[in-house]
Amino acid sequence: MTVTYFAALCALTLAAYIIAVRRSSAIANTANGRQRLHSLPTYHGLLAASLVIFPMIAIFALGSPILSHEAATNALSHFPADVQADAMRAGATLRDIRNLAAGQHSGEASDALRAAADSYNSTSTQGAYILLAAGIAAALLGIAIAFRLISPQFRARNHFEKVVNVVLIACAAVAILTTIGIVASVLTETLRFFFDPHIKGRPTVTDFLFGTEWNPQAAMRADQGDIKTAYGFLPLLTGTLLITFIAICVAGPLGLLSAIYLAEYASPKVRAYGKPVLEILAGIPTVVLGFFAALTVAPMIRGFGQYLGLDVASESALAAGLVMGMMIIPFISSLSDDVINAVPQSLRDGSAALGATKSETIRQVVLPAALPGIVSAFMLAISRAIGETMIVVMAAGLAANLTFNPLEAVTTITVQIKTLLVGDQEFDSAKTLAAFALGFVLFFVTLMLNVIALRIVRKYREQYD
Amino acid sequence: MTDAAHSTLPTAALIASRRNSPANAALVKRRYAAERRFKAFGIGALILTGTFLLALLTNIVGKSIPAFFEHTANLEVKLDPAVLAPDGKVDPATLKSADYASLTRATLMSIVPGIEGRAARKSLSGVLSSGAADELRRRVVADPSLIGQTIKVPLLLSDDGDLYMKGQDAGASSVPGIGTVTPSDIKGSITLTSTDGAFKSLVDDLTKAGVPKDADTGAIVLNSNLPSRLVAINGGLVKLQSVTPDGATGNVLLSLKGNEAASGPAWQQTTYSVPEGRRKTNDQDVAIIEKVKETGAIQKGINWRFFTSGDSREPELAGIRGALVGSALTLLVTLVLCLPIGVLAAVYLEEFAPKNRLTDIIEVNINNLAAVPSIVFGLLGLAVFLNFMGLPRSAPLVGGLVLALLVLPTIIIAARAAIKAVPPSIREAAIGLGASRQQAVFHHVLPLAMPGIMTGTIIGMAHALGETAPLLMIGMIAFIVDIPGSLTQAATVLPVQIYLWSDLPEVAFQQRTAAAIVVLLAFLFAMNGAAIWLRSKFERRW
């Protein structure tokens, strides 16, 4: 039905355009008139098309949710009141009804379910026809208005440009809407996690922020009695920081030194080969790096540890951290490269004139001048490492150990979000909401790091511009 | 300048003497050494990074190569009417549900005689893939007149059989026996006795290799950490368990035709040099595969199935077509949404936005969105698209929506840079000729900025193609065999397929994971290459 609607939309839009273009051209060519149109026929056509396309989209966007709500209410009326009142049972029944209506129901359907599915289907079909009729009516109205408006004096271009302007603003607002969407969805679920009295096993804010035990899986096995669910955030924080620290220890020196070499020493030929290496590394998907970490680096580190007589966990923080370091080398190097190149040449020339060698110039003049930019590069890299998911999902463990030993298995915020949400659809368990609380922490921390880093960069740029 | 200050200034002669002093020479040397060291650090860092990359790529490509090949056994299968159409009726329903596996099993039985007991039977049915019978089914259903004939069919080996053929073999070798050996029975646990010391050379070998003798019996006991020793005699195969110079005990793997004595080259001593404990295939499997291999029926071919079939629980049948189609559908949604929105947003911010607070907020917002962890976009998709709007789980439509939001900042930033690079003279000329501002932008500035915008879009799409984490959140992680046909059907995408396979324990799946990664990287390199080509070909410096 959706397809029919959008096919009708395309056809009517095209029709409106053609009618308006023809009509305006005809007016322009009338024998006695010979008046020149204010706007080109194309603009009359575009205005007519926009008078069709926007009302039709609006009708669909408003009508569809109303329709599906109506169909669901009608279908559920076949079931007793207690089913309708309980949100969870109503949801499950509705899923069954939809499956049956789509012909994908497995097993024997009850009479009530079958009747409900029939009613669901008939409401949906009728509603879809009403929607289509309303859409076509609106489109025809739009075409009629556009047709009436066409006259030599009518400023179709100016009106159309106003429409375009609104569309442009709407597109730019998508970015803001995304942010609002993220904040709203993550924040409301987080608030529910802490304060909704219907949620069983929810922690207090202090329990969450300062608890040292993370054990949300117990919530699934509530029937086993005395296993207490724990939502202590500290082990996840230390795990995340440990892996990030290892990653920065790898990527910091390597990224910065390669950036310095490429910016200050390398001949154009070396740069032509060196830069693509970093760019390729930056383009490798993290799931590939995770595969490499889990299947190659982790066993290697484990084998090396055994050789030295150390007990290394098979999912050690070290393996995940090393590979994550590889991931952020190109980040640090490209950002540092930019800030080093932004240091004015006069500073280098001055230092060279005083007799400093190149490395002395770099260490004592260029790097201090570029320091704010480099700091912000590191902050962006840290934020990227904290938010990285696939490498740690594949190479770090699930065990929430409160430890700073890189040879042990640790878990991270992102790993836990993924573990809590994958395969679970219930939106009312503390387990699911905990993932949103973790997501909120993640969003907040990375946002702060980014805001500060971007501030520093901005301020620093102004200094030399 | 005072006299006192003047007197402290060194004279030219003093400067020269200091410059040439040994202390100064040492200082200069030290400074130059530091210079070289610093430069070496830089080169080292770059080389180390390159080595990382090289190790990563060679490791994955190396792992992936076996997955692009497969082994099939070209065997003669008798299409027995008694099995295919037991009641004489040949209709499609009966043919579809017939037991084709029993036909392939019968064929194998005829090639490998002497299969007795459950373990041997299990090994036998483990040689061929469960997809082998499907190939047979396809042929018979397509042409029922084949029933009753004997046809030659390429039957796919199972993953273990395939790996065995790809070099994870047992290192089988045979030497003719010396002396006379008499088996005590034809199946089960038997003893082999010899009156003329037939096993003396084997015992010597084992003693030389340091295998200890049992203190009580004086026999050498073999275990799974030692190479397997076998005796091929009277058409059967016996795996030895303990050896003395004059006899041996062992288990029959392939039963013997009779228990008469055999002498000289009539019996052979076989060795599987890789110990059983270090193989995936046990000696029974190896015995059967080696028999099939001897017939010369096993052939190596290119694994086209990997590109033409969907996911499967059996590694030898699993392919990436479903994931590729899922990725294509998802990227289509992403492209359709984020290219127009991104370009129009960039046009607004760069050309029409008034310099006010709102514009400032939008700009800061876009920069921050570009750095929000991708998994948070997954949370957004889960809460808004699935939970609030009720869109279907695992669908390419939702995946595309989430990825569009994810790459939108990248595209806006790239498009803004491209628009900014078009010089103001173009706009001024257009306006001077009477164009409106929108006409100037859409007719002149935007076409000139298009190469830069396309480059940014391709890079954004490459980013979206490799993205995994947000798609896990919206349920694109289900095990899906079918190739998705529409935007709302459950699907998976290539990176998620890689993640799913990487979790599986089978070696064959690890190879396929690596192969899928190679395909993904090939796509990414092609896209980035296209972006670079576009940039170099069309970008203008004003």
Write a short abstract of this structure.
With 465 residues, chain A is an all-alpha fold. Chain A has 16 helices and 2 strands. Chain A has helices at residues 2-29, 41-76, 81-85, 87-101, 111-149, 156-195, 205-210, 234-265, 268-283, 286-307, 317-342, 345-353, 358-387, 390-395, 413-421, 430-464, and strands at 214-215, 230-231.
Average residue-wise pLDDT of chain A: 84
Please give the share of residues in helix of chain B.
55-70%
Beta-strand portion of chain A reads: under 5%
Strands side by side in the biggest sheet of chain A: 1-2
| CATH superfamily placement of the largest domain in chain B | MetI-like
Name the chain pair whose interface involves the most residues: A-B, 89 and 87 residues
Distance between the termini of chain B: 54 Å
Annotation, overall tally of beta strands of chain B? 12
Runs of chain B with pLDDT <50, length 5+? none
Topology overview:
The complex is a heterodimer of chains A (465) and B (542).
Chain A: H1 2-29, H2 41-76, H3 81-85, H4 87-101, H5 111-149, H6 156-195, H7 205-210, E1 214-215, E2 230-231, H8 234-265, H9 268-283, H10 286-307, H11 317-342, H12 345-353, H13 358-387, H14 390-395, H15 413-421, H16 430-464
Antiparallel strand pairs in A: 1-2
Helix pairs in contact in A: 1-2, 1-5, 2-5, 2-6, 4-5, 6-16, 8-11, 8-13, 9-11, 10-11, 11-13, 12-13, 13-16, 15-16
Chain B: H1 3-8, H2 12-19, H3 22-64, E1 69-78, H4 81-84, H5 92-97, H6 100-111, H7 118-125, H8 130-142, E2 150-156, H9 159-165, E3 172-176, E4 180-183, E5 189-193, H10 200-208, E6 220-221, E7 228-233, E8 236-244, E9 247-254, E10 262-263, E11 268-272, H11 283-294, E12 298-302, H12 305-308, H13 321-352, H14 357-369, H15 374-388, H16 396-421, H17 424-432, H18 437-466, H19 469-473, H20 494-502, H21 507-538
Q: Descriptors for this entry?
A:
heterodimer; A: 465 residues; mainly alpha; MetI-like fold; 2 domains; two-stranded antiparallel ribbon; 76% helix; B: 542 residues; alpha+beta; 3 domains; nine-stranded antiparallel sheet; 12 strands; 13% strand
